[in-house]
């Protein structure tokens, strides 16, 4: 091989591939390795697994998590499917409002929703209980959020948008002609729905069911706020308890293995379901869709949609706003209860929260930039076949998708608390963990963007004497610009709200708002928590509005990701 | 010395051999087409020359220096070539003038020089009024001319064209064939042109290399290729033809119920055993009465079995007496024969091309 003949950019590609492997493979490998390691001596042992599964309490947590996941997914079907059908197929009024409320649900971090629901349905003091007592004169209200039912409700409120989005896109792809074909052959509305419409949407619904299930068992924030005080043991909260001082990383790693394998298995299943969905997409484009006339029932349908979105968005938002601007949230909605003190305290007076606000957006922005840069490079390397085994690289880039945030955090903790890469305690461990966690979102977007660029555009640069890097700078870069702004925001937004991996990796100098919110929750100062939550929501709304301008109204609602 | 030489070049993708041991040499300033059906390896050959692909075997030399071999390949950007792509590959983020200037900027020409050259080439391709437009604001033919200007303005050592006209409509395609040849006559750049359209190849090329299944079947000037195809594939791919299979018996070549004396084949090599010929439909003449005997031609009785009037000419299918063979004959519009009419076919054995 002659040096003059060598394309020097190959070294850059190899460096980027190495960065990918360090970010994704290293924490995972260290996680698995440390699950077999003795905490004190470092010797290979199975003791961690004995410790992790030796107590009934820990096994019960596993069972509880699975029950929770199934219940949440089932509730998501009840919430999401009728709404999807109503928006996609009927003449229901107020579709725009429903649409906006679902976008609002996406924007609300689920742990903030949990805070709101504590204020709504906390035993005795919760708004719903007080309204009930006021109306009936009873001594106690019926609602208690600190139960399994409460937990399921809150998590389902923030997972059902997946069901809605998946089902709706499947319904949108079925043309009325397909249903007409069944009708002309003599099938009635019911038979048509059961034999044609439903089977065509079923794979999408199954896929959403799995996403909702996985989301529920991997979630940390809502369980920490509701299950911990309610004394309901779950896998994620148990993992967190392993980290209380002194942290037992090895036991946590062993305990994380079932969570990791269930997730990986179900994601694989989900991908297969999505792939089979192809038959609907194949023929669905051409036909026109007619709306189903509901008559008076359309108001009932709208009522249902507004009821669900009230649970997930309207009520919690009102409650959070009230508490954020209240001297004391329990004193209700009156003018003399209004104050800006909470917000000022959070943004201005308190150095910790001021710093956390800055950290949140700086870390989010940095990790979004890193994730996008790396994802673009990897997508480019894979598509242009610049290194062998490109397909394997794309699997590596998508792998964090199947790693629950909390498990990833344990891997990062195991990998980067000791030399040679002692990142623990620095901002970098958070930034890199966020980068890894949201790399799949960046990769999916980059992949689509790169695929849309005809390689001949770069070939034309090269044959005219420009190298690959010049082609990237002068042609690929400018062409990608627009699409990338959207992709950047899609990583930035979840990164600013990320709690489950941050909670294991932050130290006193590197708090972010989500961590602070969780940290302060046991102090019971809900005005303060709501103010923090409000800042997060305002930040997100700003970013989403930017995204809507850049990408259009499908921004956020078409992504396939977990938060 | 040849400008560009392919020597025993091969390219394999897994178990598929896309290019199979081809050799070809181009003289400086020569315009050579690679002509063949889709999947014959012509585009792969072009990408090998450009350096986008490393060969699996053989070498490519430019001015005597090896630039591609299985061990190493000079990257495309160092070959001083330029290429016109099937998709044109005009950069949509740059104006016409920026597109054309790009190669000159990479070559670090002075700003004034770039301006002058871009201005000149845009005049040549008649795009001067469009210099500040973006590609999306141009028609297909104009985009094509931007691609031509961009490739020619750098005065490359070798110009490569990959089916550049396949996305244009029929009229424009015909116009652009002459445009490409005109530009070649003006700049004399050594050119390799890939196409599946024989008319394109014949209009533009000094020589045509006909490719089939990864191999070059024949390289010749357009006229020679048409008149003297050397393989069944070339004869069938370039224009329409009749295949005549025969066998040498004594002093005759015996075909299906007719025979032609060996002597009539003139200077053809000594024929032996089974032989096959290509005979173009234009090389057969039909007569109502047996034509006067001549030294050159021979006459076969037959019957018209099918006819079609195509405006510019008649297309007849004629079956020689007693045989199964059907010969296609092209006749001028006034040469009218009825179906089932008995006719005489006049054939010049000198125009029958012996196939290998």
Describe this structure in words.
The complex is a heterodimer of chains A (563) and B (356). Chain A has 24 helices and no strands. By secondary structure, chain A is mostly helical. Chain A has a single domain, classed as MetI-like fold (Orthogonal Bundle). In chain A, helix 1 crosses helix 12 and helix 9 (189-218) runs antiparallel to helix 12. The radius of gyration of chain A is 25 Å and the shape is globular. Chain B is 24% helix and 33% strand. Chain B has helices at 42-50, 96-106, 111-124, 140-152, 170-187, 198-204, 222-227, 232-237; strands at residues 4-13, 16-26, 31-35, 57-62, 65-68, 81-84, 158-162, 190-195, 207-212, 215-220, 242-249, 252-254, 259-261, 274-279, 284-287, 298-309, 314-320, 327-331, 342-347, 353-354. A six-stranded mixed β-sheet of chain B has the order 6-7-8-3-9-10, with helices on both faces. A five-stranded antiparallel β-sheet of chain B has the order 13-12-11-14-20. In chain B, strands 15-19-16-17-18 form a five-stranded antiparallel β-sheet, with no helix packed on it. In chain B, strand 4 (57-62) and strand 5 (65-68) form a beta hairpin. In chain B, helix 3 (111-124) crosses helix 4 (140-152). Chain A binds chain B through residues 1-2, 4-7, 454, 456-457, 459-467, 470, 474-475, 478-479, and chain B through 50, 52, 71-83, 85-87, 89-94, 102-103, 106-107, 150-151, 154, 160.
């Amino acid at each position: 091989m002659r040096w003059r003949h060598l394309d020097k950019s190959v070294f850059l590609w190899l460096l980027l591939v190495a960065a990918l492997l360090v970010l994704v493979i290293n924490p995972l490998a260290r996680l698995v390795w440390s699950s077999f390691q003795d905490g004190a001596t470092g010797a290979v042992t199975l003791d961690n697994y004995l410790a992790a599964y030796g107590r009934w309490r820990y096994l019960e947590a596993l069972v509880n998590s699975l029950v929770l996941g199934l219940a949440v997914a089932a509730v998501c079907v009840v919430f999401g499917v009728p709404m999807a059908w109503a928006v996609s197929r009927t003449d229901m009024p107020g579709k725009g409002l429903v649409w906006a409320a679902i976008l609002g649900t996406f924007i609300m971090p689920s742990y903030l929703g949990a805070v709101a629901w504590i204020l709504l349905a906390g035993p005795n003091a919760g708004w719903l209980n007080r309204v009930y007592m006021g109306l009936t004169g009873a001594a106690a209200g019926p609602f208690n959020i600190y139960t399994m039912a409460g937990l399921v409700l809150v998590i389902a409120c923030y997972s059902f948008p997946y069901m809605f989005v998946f089902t709706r896109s499947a319904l949108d792809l079925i043309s009325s002609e397909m249903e007409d074909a069944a009708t002309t052959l003599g099938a009635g509305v019911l038979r048509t729905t059961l034999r044609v419409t439903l089977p065509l949407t079923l794979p999408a619904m199954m896929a959403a069911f799995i996403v909702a299930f996985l989301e529920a068992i991997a979630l940390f924030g809502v369980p920490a706020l509701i299950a911990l005080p309610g004394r309901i043991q779950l896998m994620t909260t148990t993992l967190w308890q392993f980290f209380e001082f002194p942290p037992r990383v090895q036991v946590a790693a062993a305990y994380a293995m079932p969570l990791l394998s269930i997730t990986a298995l179900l994601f694989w299943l989900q991908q297969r379901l999505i792939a089979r969905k192809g038959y609907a997409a194949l023929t669905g484009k051409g036909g026109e869709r007619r709306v189903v006339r509901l008559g008076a029932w359309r108001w009932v349908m709208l009522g249902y949609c507004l009821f669900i979105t009230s649970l997930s968005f309207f009520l919690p938002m009102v409650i959070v706003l009230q508490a954020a601007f209240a001297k004391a949230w329990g004193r209700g909605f009156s003018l003399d209860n209004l104050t800006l003190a909470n917000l000022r305290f959070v943004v201005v007076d308190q150095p910790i929260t001021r710093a956390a606000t800055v950290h949140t957006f700086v870390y989010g922005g940095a990790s979004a930039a890193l994730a996008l840069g790396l994802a673009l490079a990897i997508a480019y390397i894979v598509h242009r076949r610049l290194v062998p085994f490109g397909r394997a690289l794309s699997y590596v880039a998508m792998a964090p998708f199947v790693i629950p945030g909390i498990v990833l955090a344990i891997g990062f903790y195991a990998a980067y608390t000791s030399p040679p890469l002692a990142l623990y305690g620095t901002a970098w461990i958070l930034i890199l963990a966020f980068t890894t966690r949201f790399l799949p979102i960046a990769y999916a977007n980059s992949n689509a963007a790169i695929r849309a660029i005809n390689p001949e555009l770069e070939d034309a640069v090269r044959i005219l004497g420009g190298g690959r890097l010049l082609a990237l700078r002068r042609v690929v870069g400018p062409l990608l610009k627009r699409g990338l702004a959207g992709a950047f925001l899609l990583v930035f937004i979840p990164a600013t709200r990320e709690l489950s991996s941050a909670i294991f990796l932050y130290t006193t100098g590197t708090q972010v708002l989500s961590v602070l919110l969780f940290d302060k929750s046991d102090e019971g100062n809900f005005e303060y928590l709501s103010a923090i939550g409000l800042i997060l929501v305002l930040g997100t709304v700003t970013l989403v509005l930017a995204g809507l301008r850049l990408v259009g109204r499908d921004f956020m609602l078409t992504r396939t990701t977990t938060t | 010395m040849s400008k560009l030489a392919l020597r025993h070049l091969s390219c394999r993708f897994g178990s598929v051999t896309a290019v199979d041991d081809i050799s070809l040499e181009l003289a400086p300033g020569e315009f050579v087409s690679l002509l063949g059906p889709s999947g014959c390896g012509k585009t792969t050959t072009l990408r090998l020359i450009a350096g986008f692909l490393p060969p699996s075997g053989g070498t490519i030399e430019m001015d005597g220096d090896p630039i591609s071999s299985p061990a190493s390949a000079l990257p495309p950007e160092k070959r001083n070539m330029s290429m016109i792509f099937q998709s044109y590959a005009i950069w949509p983020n740059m104006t016409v003038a920026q597109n054309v200037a790009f190669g000159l900027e990479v070559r670090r020409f002075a700003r004034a020089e770039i301006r002058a050259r871009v201005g000149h080439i845009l005049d040549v391709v008649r795009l001067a009024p469009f210099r500040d437009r973006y590609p999306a604001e141009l028609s297909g033919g104009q985009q094509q001319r931007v691609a031509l200007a961009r490739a020619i303005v750098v005065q490359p050592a070798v110009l490569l064209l990959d089916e550049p006209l396949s996305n244009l409509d029929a009229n424009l395609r015909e116009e652009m064939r002459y445009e490409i040849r005109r530009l070649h006559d003006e700049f004399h750049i050594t050119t390799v042109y890939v196409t599946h359209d024989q008319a394109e190849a014949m209009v533009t090329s000094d020589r045509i290399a006909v490719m089939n299944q990864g191999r070059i079947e024949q390289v010749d000037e357009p006229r020679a290729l048409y008149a003297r195809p050397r393989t069944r594939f070339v004869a069938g791919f370039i224009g329409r033809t009749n295949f005549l299979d025969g066998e040498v018996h004594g002093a005759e070549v015996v075909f299906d119920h007719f025979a032609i004396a060996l002597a009539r084949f003139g200077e053809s090599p000594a024929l032996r055993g089974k032989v096959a010929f290509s005979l173009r439909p234009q090389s057969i003449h039909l007569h109502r009465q047996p034509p006067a005997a001549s030294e050159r031609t021979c006459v076969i009785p037959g019957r018209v079995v099918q006819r079609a009037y195509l405006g510019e000419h008649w297309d007849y299918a004629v079956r020689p007496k007693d045989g199964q063979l059907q010969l296609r004959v092209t006749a001028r519009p006034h040469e009218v024969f009825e179906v089932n009419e008995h006719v005489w076919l006049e054939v010049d054995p000198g125009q029958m091309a012996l196939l290998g």
